[in-house]
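Input chain follows. Return structure tokens only.
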Amino acid sequence: MVLRALSDAEIESGLQKPGAGLPWYAHLYLRYYIGPHVAGKSDWEVETKRFYDTSAALLALAEKLDNGALQRRVLVPRLAGIEDSSRFWSAAMVLEHVMIVGMGMRDIILRLSQEKQPPGHVDTARVKPQGLLPVQTVLDNYKDFPDVVMGQIEKSVPSEKRDPQVRMVHPWFGPFTLRQWHWLLAEHNAIHLRQMQAIIAGL
């Protein structure tokens, strides 16, 4: 008996829909422990450095891959902080997603620093990568990403503007302050760095 490899469409059909979120116990852990006790007490300079470090690590891994490997999708095991629908991505899709989310978080942080409520709401289903851009375009865009995002935050958000009272709701964490969103910017990178490592291991 010859076993047939599943197609990409068949693998995707076995995953939850985008935006399904995390298991209920993960939501509780994020909202009632990580949000207030980790993100809420984060050190600004430490998280800025962590953002740059994880951005550089993601780029270093991606640059070791040829175009074929960059665009090859790999089903990775369940990872903390990643929806089921996000487990079947390529390395290029990870970079695309990190840029989409990073730009969005930058805009939220800048609005909160002005004590303004960001428009709309956060929807994890709307920030999934499409995987349609040429992989070298994604890679080139990503090289500018850290300075485009964190560079603007550092320029526009001085220390006296880092703790306004206005908040923006995250669907997993609940109402988040500017400082918590800044922590999440670095943490999001770290989560997808682990995903990138798992993708490369599975190539």
